[in-house]
């Protein structure tokens, strides 16, 4: 959430306050400071300013909380050079920090808020320090008249800083926030740590001069850098652990849709994203968005793109490697792209299999420099997990399909059908279904067709019959190949009357619409139109059957006795006689 959450009137009020109050606070600070500009040692102040800037640019990060150790140096500046010097140098370090993070146009409001906050807090705390008798150059820190104003200044600074941050969150950005947060606790710990360091720097400076910056500041900076490197390694380790967890979750999924969903969900929580997409690479020219998270609603699922009109993704395909762009300026030369203009940071990670790119994962944020090299490395690892999981899921689904389906007709085989029948009959017994009908269908004189046109033609007819049955039954039931030229249809919650109507539609469809045979053994090379009829029998539970075997046996009896023996091309029902 950035400046977009702040109303126009609030922005105008903040900028107005900044223009009026900021220069006034500096002027008041100068008036309160007993040390004039002419008395300030410029070269020494430059040394302190450099130390402040370095500490502002390389904060210590504990968990996810950045801790800035500048307050200790600011205290030493106040005690040695007065309030005005402390205010100016503190503001210089704040400006340096904002230049480093490169505040975007969308977040320009941070500039007046931060400068106004730090200048006002410094002014109030400095006024309290002077009001309590605080002075400059006195290193007798054990004297109450010296240490009490210093401790009061630090306590006031911490309190006002906490209040200001809370009010900014609640009043300006309208975010729900607690007054005491983990950040507040760490700020308190930091204040306690930097206080003695600031006092030591102050005492050494008063005794040794500018070299005190090297005695205290240099170890301080080195320690900060070491801790920052430690944090970076811990951050990478944390990412690796999370990536391993995501990998386990992906490999547990045995369906491709589940793998897609889990991957995008986990990636979008692992990295800061305003846009995340899994894009399928279909051949050399076609791209398709399989999954997407888009805060702008700019791109929809199943959007198809041509590589000729997608410069950024085409570049990734040609390069064959992951790429991270820190700002829009780095990728804006890719003029043709599906990405929204508001996006800044972008990571593109190809998903490869057998040295061929089959997909691209795109992650993007509206904030500049949201990603770094370590995150790109983690995204690469996750993409590898994703590729393996997708391949495993495809293999499992294909194996499952082959074990459940008839290779010729693509209908379910009888083994799978038996399992479905058991489950549906259990639902009938439990009262979840009111009825359960089963249709058995046998093609009439099918052997003659094989003898006349060849077995390949017979197979063509079986496939066409399967297609027609699936079209006629739709989602109301399960169609399976029973064996040879026989088919079975299971119809949950379909009573006897509706089952008869469906069976009759099937019979009429097969009898009245010829089957076109392209591959046959006749002398003619033209397409042969063949008429095929079917004998159909059905039974309905619970009226006609006490278990699954009864249901099949009674439907089978109806088909042979009531349809085939009665002249074929008929529908017969089984009725249980008392």
Automatic annotation (TrEMBL):
Membrane-spanning segments? 12-30, 42-62, 74-99, 111-132, 155-174, 186-205, 211-230
Q: Which Gene3D superfamilies match?
A: 3.30.450.40, 3.30.70.270
Q: Which residues form a coiled coil?
A: none
| Domain of life of the source | Bacteria
Q: Does the keyword Oxidoreductase apply?
A: no
Q: Which UniProt keywords apply?
A: Membrane, Transmembrane, Transmembrane helix
**Known CDD domains for this protein?**
GGDEF
Annotated InterPro entries: Diguanylate_Cyclase, GAF, GAF-like_dom_sf, GGDEF_dom, Nucleotide_cyclase, Rev_trsase/Diguanyl_cyclase
- Where do the GGDEF domain residues begin and end? 434-576
Q: In this record, what's one Pfam family? A: GAF_2
PANTHER family in the cross-refs: DIGUANYLATE CYCLASE DGCM-RELATED, REGULATORY COMPONENTS OF SENSORY TRANSDUCTION SYSTEM
State what protein this is by name. Diguanylate cyclase (GGDEF)-like protein
Organism, scientific name: Sutcliffiella tianshenii
